[in-house]
Design goal:
With 414 residues, the protein is mainly alpha-helical. The chain has helices at residues 3-44, 47-81, 83-117, 124-153, 170-174, 179-208, 212-247, 249-256, 289-295, 317-345, 353-361, 365-381, 392-395, and strands at residues 158-161, 164-167, 267-274, 279-286, 384-386, 390-391. Strand 5 and strand 6 (390-391) form a beta hairpin. Helix 7 packs antiparallel against helix 10. The radius of gyration is 23 Å and the shape is globular. It starts with a helix and ends in a 19-residue tail after the last helix.
């Protein structure tokens, strides 16, 4: 195993998946919102809903296409850089990705064309039905990907046979409790991304005093939805933390930057972890809170990273800071959504230009929260690709070296 090839492969895949996830995290929520918009248009006959729908449909189409194309790149990287992972986990991951094709892609491919070209060619009820089917397809896609990733996080329902992970119980894999915590967490993150981006766009048009009827629809619907969803997301985030605490204690310790066992455990709000010295500098901590968060107890013993061999300890800096950035983004979105919803209800939001500017400038927050959430989950999983049973170094293509390249520099593109 070439360590440089391993590092470069990890960086390449991290870049690809980070670019890719921007698009599904946006389009999943946007597709559901388009369904609501079309339903409101049919129910009320209000022209503004049609204008807003057509505006966002164009954006959805572009983002959806980019998501498909960027996702295909990852499939090639599995074959070129991570062939051992593909060989060993193929009996499980292969069918799961096939299920995505048979459900999600089939729905999207069947009905997306109706959305783009069929409004004048089909009945209004069928157009609404097509919009809902595209939204359902994007949801199915998220579900199967989360089943796949959750199995890698907490592998269940398999045996090792001839050097491969062979499924023995698909019900355990698909209906794992971990899936039904992580899938809603990702789905709500997508809905929040759509809601915040829609609200930000409405704020922009409201600031410019153009398309004001449409701007108020976007602004109010986005804020109201975010005001409801952020607390629900925090709840599922806590449930996600519970599974990490129970099944991935080393990752949990890395997120908390807890180096040694503590009873009761303090919660490090912020600080600078020092992996070499295995301590934190300039740490601001709250006593007992760590036990309360980890075990819902005031006196539980929480494990530290020194309980694990050095080779099994995940990196600390990225999970520690990424988790806090994610939580910070969530709290900012919560405050903004609640204040904005209250002022909108009182009819004062459109006059508050400072808050409108803040809402407009907040559109990157859900993307940053999604990125940092995934950084926490994936970097914290190291040094494992399939947690506890397949190391990342062993998942690499065995003959891959840093000199390998899919394109020769002597070729036409060199």
């Amino acid at each position: 195993m070439d360590p440089i090839a391993l590092l470069l492969s990890r960086i390449q895949f991290a870049f690809t998946v980070s670019f890719h996830i921007v698009f599904p995290s946006f389009t999943i929520g946007l597709a559901a919102w388009l369904t609501v918009l079309e339903g409101l248009r049919l129910a009320t006959g209000r022209p503004a809903y049609r204008v807003v729908f057509e505006f966002w449909l164009k954006i959805f189409a572009i983002a959806f296409g980019l998501g498909v194309v960027s996702g295909i790149v990852m499939a090639f990287e599995f074959g070129t850089n991570w062939s051992e992972l593909s060989r060993m986990s193929g009996p499980i991951q292969g069918p799961l990705l096939a299920y995505e094709t048979f459900t999600a892609f089939a729905l999207e491919a069947s009905f997306f064309g109706v959305l783009l070209f069929g409004r004048q060619r089909v009945a209004p009820w069928f157009y609404l039905f097509s919009t809902a089917m595209v939204a359902l397809g994007t949801t199915f896609s998220a579900f199967w990907i989360m089943v796949n990733n959750s199995w890698m996080q907490v592998p269940v329902g398999y045996i090792v046979q001839n050097g491969a992970f062979v499924p023995t119980d698909w019900a355990k894999i698909i209906f794992s409790p971990v899936v039904w915590v992580r899938f809603p967490h990702m789905l709500i993150a997508s809905y929040l991304t759509g809601a915040v981006c829609v609200a930000a766009t409405g704020a922009w048009y409201e600031l410019r005093r153009t398309f004001q009827a449409e701007a108020r629809i976007m602004l109010r619907m986005g804020l109201y939805l975010a005001a409801v969803l952020v607390p629900v997301q925090i709840f599922f985030g806590h449930l996600t933390g519970d599974y990490v605490h129970d099944f991935q204690p080393a990752k949990f310790a890395a997120i908390e930057a807890r180096w040694h066992d503590e009873q009761p455990a303090a919660e490090v709000l912020i600080g600078i972890p020092d992996p070499d010295a295995q301590t934190n500098h300039y740490a601001i901590s709250i006593p007992v809170l760590g036990s309360l968060i980890g075990s819902m107890s005031f006196d539980s013993k929480e494990v530290g990273l020194t309980d694990f061999p050095r080779q099994d300890q995940p990196p600390v800096l990225i999970p520690f800071f990424a988790f806090r950035i994610m939580v910070g983004c969530g709290l900012v979105m919560l405050a903004q959504a609640w204040i904005g919803s209250y002022l909108s209800h009182r009819g004062r939001l459109e006059k508050n230009r400072a808050l409108l500017w803040l809402i407009f400038l907040s559109f990157p927050l859900p993307f940053i929260a999604t990125w940092t959430g995934w950084f926490t989950a994936e970097v914290g999983r190291q040094p494992w690709t399939v947690y506890g049973v397949l190391r990342t170094a062993d998942a690499l293509t065995p003959f891959l070296t840093q000199g390998c390249s899919t394109l020769s520099t002597d070729g036409p593109l060199g």
